[in-house]
Amino acid sequence: MSQKPSLPQGTRDFGPEVVRKRQYILNTIRTVFERFGFQPLETPAMENLDTLMGKYGEEGDKLIFKILNNGLDRPEKEASARAAFEKVLGGKSTKDLTERALRYDLTIPFARYVAMNHGSLTFPFRRYQVQPVWRADRPQKGRYREFYQCDADVVGSRSLMNEVDLCSIYHTVFIQLGLKGYELRINSRKLLAALAEISGGAEKMMDITIAIDKLDKIGLDKVKEELAGRGLNEAQIATIQRYLEIGGSNEEKLVAIKELFGDNETAKKGIEEIEFVGNMVTGEGVNLVLDFTLARGLNYYTGIIFEVKAPAEVKIGSIGGGGRYDDLTGLFGVPDMPGVGISFGVDRIYDVLEELRLFPEALTQSTRALFFNLGDAESRVAYGLLQELRMAGTSGELYHEASRMDKQFKYAEKKHIPYAVIIGSREVSEKTALVKELTTGKQTSVPFEDLAGFLKS
Amino acid sequence: MSQKPSLPQGTRDFGPEVVRKRQYILNTIRTVFERFGFQPLETPAMENLDTLMGKYGEEGDKLIFKILNNGLDRPEKEASARAAFEKVLGGKSTKDLTERALRYDLTIPFARYVAMNHGSLTFPFRRYQVQPVWRADRPQKGRYREFYQCDADVVGSRSLMNEVDLCSIYHTVFIQLGLKGYELRINSRKLLAALAEISGGAEKMMDITIAIDKLDKIGLDKVKEELAGRGLNEAQIATIQRYLEIGGSNEEKLVAIKELFGDNETAKKGIEEIEFVGNMVTGEGVNLVLDFTLARGLNYYTGIIFEVKAPAEVKIGSIGGGGRYDDLTGLFGVPDMPGVGISFGVDRIYDVLEELRLFPEALTQSTRALFFNLGDAESRVAYGLLQELRMAGTSGELYHEASRMDKQFKYAEKKHIPYAVIIGSREVSEKTALVKELTTGKQTSVPFEDLAGFLKS
C-alpha cells in the first residue's frame, strides 16, 4: 500500500543548491570563529527535560518538543504511564511519560556543558556552536519549527576585550559575505538601568526595557502608551522620550547622553563600556552605530548588547544579536560564570544574500566535467582519465550509460556542468579528448596527458 | 534552585578536539562525494510518523523516538488525547498523541524526498547526506542513541558504472584518510539467490541470507545448525558449505564459483556483475576482495553488495557498507526507482584513525598565536596587529586581561597555542614584536610589518 508522503508543518528539505548556499554562509562564519580562537562544541539534539524546562518562561516551556518515552506499551509500565498521562492533561510533564526533549536553543545546552565540564575547561572558554534547534511555534512566513542557530560565546571573563572581539567577528563575517552596508548597533543595558533610576525607580527596569524593545515595531506613541499602562507617570515618560529621541552621529549621541544622565553612576559605567568598545573597534568598513533605543527582550543581559541590521535596501529585521550576561551556569549549580555572546540569524542572512545576489556564482556548479559514455570500451578509457582528474581535485562524472548524445548533453545542462569531455573510438586511438565548453560551444582537442590540467578549476 | 545537570543516556557532547576530528573525517568524505558529482541533501530531523512507521520491521518501529504533540493540556483536546493514550498503551501509535518522530536512518527520508520531488530532479540523481539519526536502542559500548550517518546513493539508473563509482569513492576516501590496509569486499545478492535455487529452492533465499550473514560472528558450525533449524536438509547444507568455503585469490574464487554454479542463469548474471566491477575498479592501492560469504542482513538488496573492513591490525567490525536495490520509492507511490548506495560508519572510522594515530597533528591546534596583554595602551597596538593577522587568514587571540605573564603562558599552553606574541611598551616604541615559539622557547624579534608573514601557517 502506498502513501502520499509529506513533511511535518514548519520543517524543510534543503536540496543541493540550498545546502551549498547555506554551507557557504556557515563555513564563512565557522572559519572566522576559528580565526578568532573560538572552539567548536556540539551537544545532542535531545536533552533531559529537566535541563530545559523552566528556562524559557511559561510560553517557552509550551513550545518545547517533548519526546515520548519508549516502551510505554509494556504491561508493567501501564499504571505509572496512566498516572503520568493525567499530569500531562493537567499541563504538567512527568518523567513517566516524557523525560527527554529537543533542544530549544544553544545557550542552555552550552550552560549545561560548561556546568558539567568546568573543571577541565580552559577559561576564558571561547566556544562556537552551529546546530539546529526546534520550537513548536505556529509556522508562518520566515518562522520554522526547525532552524539553525549559530552562536559564539566567551565565558569566564568580564573583560570588555571580549565584546570588542565579538564586534570584530561580526565585521569580518559580513565583509567576507560582501554585506558592506550592514550596521552593528550597540548599547549597554546599564544605560537602561540608569534610565529606570532617573525616571521611574530601578524596579521598573524590565518594564521600560520591554516597552522600548517594541519601538521599531510599534513606534514612539504606542511605546509611551505602553509605559503609561505599566504605571509610569507623565514626567517619567517625558524623560524616557528625551532618552529615546537622542540622535545624530555617535559623537553627538555621546554628548547628549552624558548631559541627560549627569552624575548617575550606573550611566557612567555604561558610557565607559560603550566608549571602550567604540574606540577599540575600528578599521576599514566598520560600521558601529550607538543606538540607545536598542533594548533586546531577554532579561539576562546586564552590559553591552548588540544587534546587526541588514543593509538598508533589504527590508528585513535584525540578522544577528547578543550581549553580556552575568550568570550562565548558576541554574546548574556553578556560580560566577559571566560571559558575552553573539548569534547569527542564518535564515535571514540567506534571504539577504539571495535578494542582493551576493552568493558566488560557483555555488550553482556542482560537477565540472561530464565524460560522455560512448560504449564500454571507450568508457573504460574515459573512466581511467576521470579518476586522474578527481585525484587532482577536480570534480567529474562519467555518464552512467551509452545513451544518445543529446540525452547526455541534456544531463550536463540540467546539472549546470560547464565541460563535456567526449572520448569516442577515434579519440581513444589518438589519445586525445574532445572537450566542449557548454556555455560557448567552443571545442578543443586535448591530449589525454593534459586533460587534468586543462580542466582544473 | 540549582540542579545537577546530566545528559540523556546514549547521547554525547562533542568537545572542541572531538568536533575537529569528526569534521576532518566528514569533510574528507564530503569533498570526495562532491568530486564524484554527488549533491548534498538535508532533510528535517522530524518526519511524520506515517513516513517512518512500518519501514524498519516490528523491532525498528519500537526504536523510533516519537514526539509528543504539543497543546495536549488544552481542555478541548482532552477527550481525543485520552482515547489516543489508550491506543499507545495497547502498543499502537496515533496522531492524536504523537504525529511526528525523529528520523531513524537517512534512507527513508531520502526516499520520501525523491518521491515528493521526482518531477523536478535530474536522473540519475546522485545525492549524499550527512546527518544524525536517533534510535531508542539500549545504549552500550560503541552504540549510541544519536549518531551520524553518512550516505551516498545514485537513483534512477541500473548501470553498473554506479557500483564502480561507489567503489572508487570508498577507495579515494580511505586513501585520503591514510587507511591503506582497508579491504573492500563485494558480492552479489544474485549469487545468494542462485545458491538458494541450487540448494533449497528460491523461497529459502532470505533464510539462507540471514544465516550466512552471521558467519563472521558465530562460525560455520552454528550457521549450519541455523540452516538445519530453518528446514534445510543435509545435502542442501553441504552445497551451502561448499559455497561458503570457496577461498583463494579473486581469480581462484571466480573459477571455483563458476564450477559450483555451472549453467545457473541467476549465478551467471551475478558473476558478470562482479567481473564488470572488478575489472573497472583498478588503480594503485585498490583492495577489492570478492567475498561470497558477504550477505548483509537487509532484505531490500538485489544486486552487488559492499562491505568495508578496517585494516587487520584494528579489531573492529565493518566501517562501511551498502548495495543495490530495485525499488526505493514504491512505498511512497513512485514505482521503478532502482538505485545503489553506500554508507560510512563515522564513529568506527573515528576509532580506527584514533587507534592507528592517523589524525593530522594540526587538528589539536586551534589558535596559532596568543598576543599577550600587557595593559590597555599596549593591547590597543597588539589588537590592531592581531586584526591584520586574522585578515591574512591566521588565527590568533589577545589575552583577555593584563594578567601576570605566567598566567598568560599557561593559557597558551593549555590551548596548545604554538606562538606567544609579546608587545610591551618597549616593543611598541620600537615597532617590533617579541615572538616566542612555545615548544622550543626560541625567541625572535619581528618588525610589526613582518608579523603577519612570520606567523602565517
From TrEMBL, chains A, B:
Source organism of the structure: Flaviaesturariibacter flavus
Keywords: Aminoacyl-tRNA synthetase, ATP-binding, Cytoplasm, Ligase, Nucleotide-binding, Protein biosynthesis
EC number: 6.1.1.21
Top-level division of the source organism's lineage: Bacteria
GO CC field: cytoplasm
Subunit structure: Homodimer.
One GO biological process term: histidyl-tRNA aminoacylation
Protein name: Histidine--tRNA ligase
Residue numbers binding L-histidine: D105, L106, T107, R135, Q149, D153, R296, Y300, Y301
HAMAP family: His_tRNA_synth
Compartments (UniProt record): Cytoplasm
UniProt-listed Pfam families: HGTP_anticodon, tRNA-synt_His
Family matches, as Gene3D superfamilies: Anticodon-binding domain (3.40.50.800), Bira Bifunctional Protein, Domain 2 (3.30.930.10)
Domain Aminoacyl-transfer RNA synthetases class-II family profile: 1-353
Annotated family: Belongs to the class-II aminoacyl-tRNA synthetase family.
Major enzyme class: ligase
GO molecular function terms listed in the Swiss-Prot or TrEMBL record: ATP binding; histidine-tRNA ligase activity
Reaction catalysed by this enzyme: tRNA(His) + L-histidine + ATP = L-histidyl-tRNA(His) + AMP + diphosphate + H(+)
